[in-house]
Amino acid sequence: METLRFTYSGGLPVGNQAAATLVGVVGSGNLEILVERQSLAGACEVEVITAAIGFGTIWQSVLDDFFARHGLADIRISINDVGATPAVVSLRLDQAIASFLAGPQ
Amino acid sequence: MSSYYEASARERLQGVLDPASFEEIMPPGERVVSPHLRQLDTPAAFDDGIVVGFGLLSGHKVLVAAQEGGFMGGAVGEVHGAKLVGLLERARDEKPAAVLLLVESGGVRLHEANAGLIAVSEIMRAVLALRGAGVPVLVLDGGAFGCFGGMSIVAKLCDAVIISEEGRLGLSGPEVIETAGGVEEFDSRDRALVWRTVGGKHRYLLRDAMILVADRIPAFRQAAIDCLSLRPDLSLAALEAEHALLASRMERFGACKDAVDIWRHLGIADPAGLPLLEADEFIAATHDKRA
Amino acid sequence: MDAQSLLSRLFPDGFEIQADGLFFSGKGTTRGIEVAVIGSIDAAAIGIELAFQMAGAVLDIVRLEPERPILLLVDTTGQRLTRRDELLGINAYMAHLAKCLELARNQGHKIIGLVYSQAVSGGFLASSLLSDRCYALPEAEVRVMNLPAMARITKIPLERLEQLSQSSPVFAPGVENYRKMGAIADIWQGDLAACLIDALAQDSKDDNRRRLGAERQGRTLAEKVAERVRRGAR
Questions:
Q1: CATH code (residue B17)
Q2: What is the per-residue pLDDT across C17-37, written as a single tens digit (0 to 9) for each?
Q3: Which of A15, A44, B132, C106 has the highest CB neighbour number within 10 Å of its CB?
Q4: Which ipTM was obtained for this model?
Q5: How many domains in chain B?
Q6: Contact state of A20 with B27 under an 8 Å Cβ cutoff
Q7: Is the Cβ of C147 closer than 8 Å to some Cβ of chain B?
Q8: A&B contacts, CB < 8 Å
C-alpha cells in the first residue's frame, strides 16, 4: 500500500449547496472517492491510498488534468484505490465532482 | 439504474426508499474504517462496506442497512458488523415501521476472522431482540455476491426474505462444498446447478423466500412496501408450526438429488423449464404449488 | 475431555442422558438445581438433521420444563458441507434453532454454553454462540477456519497470518483470543460444578460481548461504533 499526497491552488470557490459525496467502490480495478469541503486557504488537497505501488507520476498526471478541468478551492479529495486505470480514475473524479457540486439529491 | 444486481449499495438505497428521503448515519466522511486491514496490506473503505441510516418507505419511517458486495464481497468485519448491530439496537429504541437489510455478503470477513464471527453472532441476537420488540425486519437479496455464511442465518431470522431470480441464499458457497466433497458433490462452475440449489426461484418454492421479484429496484421497493404490514411472531405456536414445516421438508424432499426432483414432487408440470421463465411467468406457474 | 467425564464433573448429584447418534439430551442435577442439557459429540458437523434435533429438544424444554436452565454442550467442526444440506436450506434450520433458543430465553430459561471440545464457524454460530453466556474449557478449540485455509482463500501468506496472530487476537484460533474478544465469558477449570453454579446465579439476558471485548481490549472498536450508530443524532 502507498499513500500519495497532492496539493493544488487557484481553483474556483464552491457554491453553498455542495455536499460531501462518495462515489465508487473499493474493489479490484476500482476506487472510491470522497469529496468534502474544507477550509484550506483556497487550496485543494488530494490524498490517495493505493494498493498499486509505484504509479506516483501517473497519479500526478491524472490529477493535474483533473484540476485543469475542475479546479476547485477549499476542498479535500480522499481516494481509496485498488489499481484502477487512469481512464477509470478520471471518470470517477468527474462523477465525484459533479455529484459534490449538485448537492444533496 | 434499474437493475438491482448491477447497482451499488448506495444506488439501491436511493431507489428502494422514497425519493431524497435517505439520511446516512456515520457517513464516510467520519472515516470509521477497519483497524485490521492496513496490517494485511489490504485497502480499506471509508464506510467499511456497509451503509446505515434511515429514510421513508411509502411515507413510513424505516431504518436501513445496505452491504456493498464490491468491497470484500460484503463480508462482515468488526466495524461493518458493529454498524449493523448499532442500527438494530437503534431500531429497538426508535421502533420504526420496519428495518430493511439490503444484504450482499459472503459472511464472516476472513481478514478479521474472529471479530467477524462474533459480530455476526451479535447481529443474530440483535435481530431477535428487535423482532421480539415488535419491529419487522425485511431482507432484500439480489446482489452478485448473494447472501452466504452467517448472514444467511441472519436472513432466516427475519420476517421475510425478498429475493430476485439473480439472488442466492445459502450457507456454504459452492466452491467450499466442492473443495470439501469434490466436483461430483457440487460442480461450482455449473451455474445452472448453483441457481437451482441456492437461487431465488428455488428458495421461493421452498418458502425460504417469501417473495420473488424481477431484478429491478422498483420491484424490490414494492415488495418491501407490501411487507410493511408484517408483524413479528416468535411465539411457541409459530415456532412449532415452523418445526412441522421443516420436518415435512426433510420427509418429502430428503431423498431428492436435485432441485428439479423437488419441483416435480411439488406437482410442477415442467420443472426443467422453470429456470427459463421470467419472474412474472414463473410466479404465475408456481405460486400455488410452493412447499 | 469426553462428554461422559464432563457430565460427571458438572453434575455431582447425577445426570440422565439419552444419546441419538451424534446428538444427546437430558438433564443433570447440581446443588439441587436441575439443568436441561442439549449437546453433540465427536466433533459433529451440523447439518439439517442435527440442527432440527437440537431445536426440537429446545421446544420440548419450553413446553414441559418451565424456567429450567439449559446447558449447551456442543462439539462441532462446523456446518456440514454437502449439496443436500444447501438444497434443503441448512441456514433456515440453523435459524430455526436460534429462534427456539430465543423463545426459551424469553420464557425465562437461562441458556449457558460450554465449549468442551471444538467449536467452529457456522456450527459455533448455530449453537454455543447463541447462549446468554458462553464458557469454554482451556483445552477446547475455537475458530472460524484454520490458518492455512485462511491463507489460501485470502491470498495472505501463512507466515504473515501466524506472525500477526501473536500480537492480535483477531485471526488466531483459541479460547483465550475469544475470551479476550468477549465471546467467551470465562474459562472453566478445576471445580466445574462450582463454575456452573456461579454461571447459573448470574443475571445474563443481555448480550454483553461487545462491552467485554472493549474492557479486555480484544475488540477496541465494536462497542464504540455500535454505540455511536445507536445514539448518534444522525
A1: 3.90.226.10
A2: 999 999 999 999 999 999 999
A3: A44
A4: 0.98
A5: 1
A6: yes
A7: no
A8: 48
